[in-house]
Design a protein that fits this description.
Layout: E1 10-15, H1 16-27, E2 32-37, E3 41-48, E4 51-58, E5 70-73, E6 78-82, H2 83-89, E7 98-103, E8 109-115, E9 119-125
Antiparallel strand pairs: 1-5, 1-7, 2-3, 2-6, 3-4, 7-8, 8-9
Length: 133
């Protein structure tokens, strides 16, 4: 399948182990996670009958370079994804320091791991389509 070059309207760079931890924790509440971006923050949230949970991260410089979260948002994006697949992708987290999430309202999510001296590992995940439309 050919993947067209895309200008993503939201790019989030987050510590790889932190993103892995967020996905594992939210998966205990629900199988579907909503990712919302704005110029000020990125929010990962889930809702279920048992309860709801969300983690909001703002742009920061972190205590060290490894904990830095950066946001490049030209247009806000809100999409839902199956956490099961994100947890599979996160098995590559130990290979690098940062995970890049590239989002666009009409494109699949790109989860990117830049591996030092080797290249880039990219996973593509289509958003869940809600039945409410």
């Amino acid at each position: 399948m050919a993947i067209p070059e895309t200008e993503y309207s939201s790019v989030v760079s987050i510590n790889a182990s932190e993103f892995s931890k967020i996905c594992k924790e939210l998966y205990s509440l629900n199988e579907t996670m909503t990712v919302s971006t704005s110029p000020q923050f990125v929010q990962f949230s889930v809702e279920s009958e048992a309860g709801s949970g969300s983690i909001k991260l703002g742009q920061n410089d972190g205590g060290s370079a490894d904990e830095k979260t950066t946001l490049e948002v030209s247009e806000a994006v809100t999409q839902q994804f199956a956490i099961r697949y994100l947890n599979m992708f996160n098995k590559a987290a130990p290979l690098t320091t940062f995970t890049r999430l590239c989002l666009h309202n009409e494109q699949p999510l790109v989860v990117e791991y830049k591996i030092e001296n080797l290249g880039v590992l990219k996973y593509y995940l289509a958003p869940k389509i809600s039945d409410e439309n």
